[in-house]
C-alpha cells in the first residue's frame, strides 16, 4: 500500500534513518513534508490543515518546543507514531491520537510493528477504537517493558549503556553512575530522571542514592532498625530499604 505521511524530527541523522527504515518495509510511503520545529509545523498545518494524511511519525522534543503544541493547536486527529528518547510523555501522546510510542533507538522490527498496528486499526469497524482506554493500557504495558539505552561519555568516546545490563544506579558526590557487572559508567542524568525512564517492573528506587534491578538481587537481609539490606550479584555499596518502605519493596519484589 502507498501511505502519505509526515515526519516531524529535528535531527537530520534521525530523519535519514527513518527514511532508510521505511524504504526497507514492504509498503511504500510518500513523505509529504519534513518538519524540524514547532514554528515550521504551525506554518505547514496552517496552510495544509485539510491535506489528506495517513499517519504522522513525530519526535516530541523539537528545537523550539514540543510537538504537542502543533497537534493541540490544530486539533489533529491523524494517527501518530511517536518516536522519542523519553517516556514521560506517554499519557499526553495517547491523548493526542498516538497509536504507538517508540523509544529511541528503535529497530526496524519495532517500526514495522507500529505500522502494522496502524493498518489494523484503520480496518477496525469504529475509528474510535484507535484511541480507546484499551489501547492506552497496551501502550503503557509496552512502555513498562522497555529498557532504554543511556549514554556515558569517556574521554573522547560516547558509550551506550544498556539499562538491562545495569545492576544498580548510584548517586555519589552529586554524580550518578550505572554499575554493570564489569564496569562503572558516569551518566549525565539525575537519579530522578533515570527513575522516570526505567521500567518499574524491573527497577526499584531503594532510597535517595540507589536504584536496583530485580534480576540482580541475590538476597535480602534484615537490618538494624527494621530496615532491609539488599545484596546484589556484584560487590556494592550498602543499599538499604527504610522501615517505612519495606512493605512496598516486598510487594514490588513479588510482582
**End-to-end CA span:** 43 Å
Task: Average the pLDDT over all residues and give the rounded result.
Answer: 85
Element-level helix/strand string = EHEHEEEHEHEHHEEEEEHEEEEEH
Whole-number radius of gyration?
Answer: 21 Å
Name the helicity range.
Answer: 25-40%
Task: Give an account of the 3D structure.
The protein has 255 residues and is an alpha/beta fold. 30% of the residues lie in helices and 33% in strands. The protein contains eight helices and 17 strands. Residues 125-133 have low confidence and may be disordered.
Strand and helix layout:
Elements: E1 2-8, H1 12-23, E2 28-35, H2 38-47, E3 55-58, E4 61-62, E5 65-66, H3 68-73, E6 80-84, H4 90-95, E7 98-103, H5 108-122, H6 133-144, E8 149-154, E9 157-162, E10 168-172, E11 175-179, E12 184-187, H7 191-197, E13 203-205, E14 210-213, E15 217-223, E16 227-232, E17 239-241, H8 246-254
Parallel strand pairs: 1-2, 1-3, 3-6, 6-7
Antiparallel strand pairs: 4-5, 8-9, 10-11, 10-14, 11-12, 13-14, 15-16, 16-17
Key attributes of the depicted protein:
255 residues; alpha/beta; five-stranded parallel beta sheet; five-stranded antiparallel beta sheet; 8 helices; 17 strands; elongated
How would you summarize what this structure contains?
With 255 residues, the chain is an alpha/beta fold. The protein is 30% helix and 33% strand.
Amino acid at each position: 500500500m502507498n501511505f502519505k505521511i509526515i515526519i516531524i524530527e529535528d535531527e537530520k541523522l534521525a530523519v535519514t534513518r527513518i527514511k532508510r527504515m521505511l524504504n526497507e518495509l514492504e509498503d511504500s510511503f510518500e513523505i509529504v513534508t519534513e518538519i524540524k520545529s514547532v514554528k515550521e509545523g504551525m506554518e505547514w498545518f496552517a496552510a495544509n490543515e485539510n491535506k489528506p494524511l495517513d499517519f504522522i511519525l513525530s519526535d516530541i522534543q523539537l528545537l523550539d518546543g514540543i510537538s504537542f503544541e502543533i497537534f493541540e493547536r490544530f486539533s489533529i486527529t491523524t494517527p501518530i507514531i511517536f518516536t522519542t528518547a523519553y517516556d514521560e510523555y506517554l499519557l499526553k501522546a495517547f491523548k493526542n491520537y498516538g497509536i504507538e510510542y517508540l523509544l529511541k533507538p528503535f529497530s526496524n522490527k519495532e517500526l514495522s510493528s507500529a505500522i502494522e498496528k496502524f493498518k489494523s486499526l484503520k480496518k477496525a469497524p469504529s475509528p474510535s477504537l484507535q484511541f480507546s482506554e484499551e489501547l492506552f493500557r497496551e501502550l503503557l504495558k509496552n512502555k513498562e517493558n522497555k529498557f532504554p539505552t543511556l549514554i556515558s561519555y569517556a574521554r573522547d568516546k560516547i558509550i551506550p549503556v544498556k539499562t538491562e545490563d545495569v545492576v544498580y544506579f548510584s548517586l555519589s558526590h552529586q554524580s550518578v553512575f550505572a554499575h554493570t557487572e564489569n564496569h562503572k559508567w558516569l551518566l549525565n542524568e539525575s537519579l530522578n530522571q533515570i527513575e522516570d525512564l526505567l521500567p518499574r517492573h524491573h527497577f526499584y528506587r531503594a532510597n535517595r542514592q540507589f536504584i536496583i534491578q530485580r534480576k540482580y538481587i541475590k538476597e535480602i537481609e534484615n537490618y538494624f532498625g527494621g530496615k532491609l539490606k539488599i545484596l546484589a550479584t556484584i560487590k556494592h555499596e550498602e543499599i538499604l530499604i527504610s522501615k517505612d518502605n519495606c512493605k512496598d519493596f516486598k510487594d514490588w519484589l513479588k510482582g
